[in-house]
């Protein structure tokens, strides 16, 4: 419990530092906004992950994954619309919308990766071993031959370290952000009207 409180106190300090960084980056509104929405997304995903962990669930249920996907998509859409309408004057290209969504998940992924690292090293030092046991149980349920299972587990043991697990969570977040943003950007892009400038001149 102390470790969890320590994590959230450190997260609060990180948020304050992020706010100060935003103040220093007023000239780069895209970076400022992606940091803000990334912080929101990261904190929510960490809370969902923490609640799941406290209930003793090692393998994330499908419905929890669906909730996580919905959170990621919702914040990408929300953040992009706000940025498009409040900063860019109501228009945004497909490429900018895509980049905005990916940056949000990058900053969220950093928060999730830090939490995962603390989970696997401080909160629950046996976390990696529990994941290996879970992987072994899944292989047994699928009826994988002992020789193949042993080879697979040996390979997983080499990579199942706290650092690798946290980096994998970061990579997974950015990859999901890229895939989701590829789709959401189709609907969020809004090209500037070619007649906007001419109308102003006529007026």
Description of the molecule:
The protein is mainly α. It has one domain. The protein is 82% helix and 0% strand. It has eight helices and no strands. The chain has helices at 2-24, 29-54, 62-86, 94-123, 127-141, 146-159, 162-188, 196-202. Helix 1 (2-24) runs antiparallel to helix 2 (29-54), helix 2 (29-54) runs antiparallel to helix 3 and helix 4 (94-123) packs antiparallel against helix 7. It is elongated. The N and C termini lie far apart (64 Å).
The secondary-structure class comes to: mainly alpha
Unreliable stretches covering 5 or more consecutive residues = 198-203
Taking all Cα atoms into account, the compactness measure Rg is 21 Å
How far from one another are the termini? 64 Å
What is the count of DSSP helices, taking H or I runs of 4+ residues?
8
Strand content: under 5%
Question: What's the rounded overall pLDDT mean?
Answer: 83
Number of strands: 0
Instruction: Report the order of strands and helices.
Output: HHHHHHHH
Instruction: State the helical fraction.
Output: over 70%
- Biggest sheet: strands, sense, closure? none
- Number of self-contained structural domains: 1
Shape: elongated
């Amino acid at each position: 419990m102390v470790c969890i409180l320590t994590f959230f106190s450190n997260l609060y300090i990180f948020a304050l530092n992020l706010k100060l960084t935003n103040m220093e980056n007023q000239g780069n509104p895209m970076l400022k906004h992606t940091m803000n929405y990334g912080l929101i997304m990261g904190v929510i995903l960490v809370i969902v992950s923490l609640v799941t962990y406290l209930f003793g669930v090692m393998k994330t249920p499908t419905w929890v994954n669906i909730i996580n996907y919905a959170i990621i998509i919702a914040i990408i859409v929300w953040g992009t619309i706000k940025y498009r309408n409040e900063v860019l004057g109501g228009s945004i290209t497909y490429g900018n919308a895509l980049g905005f969504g990916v940056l949000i998940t990058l900053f969220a992924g950093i928060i999730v990766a830090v939490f995962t690292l603390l989970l696997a090293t401080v909160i629950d030092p046996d976390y990696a071993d529990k994941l290996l046991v879970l992987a072994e149980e899944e292989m047994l349920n699928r009826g994988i031959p002992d020789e193949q299972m042993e080879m697979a587990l040996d390979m997983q043991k080499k990579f199942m370290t706290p650092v690798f697990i946290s980096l994998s969570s970061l990579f997974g977040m950015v990859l999901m952000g890229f895939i989701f943003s590829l789709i959401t950007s189709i609907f969020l892009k809004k090209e500037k009207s070619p007649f906007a400038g001419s109308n102003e001149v006529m007026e």
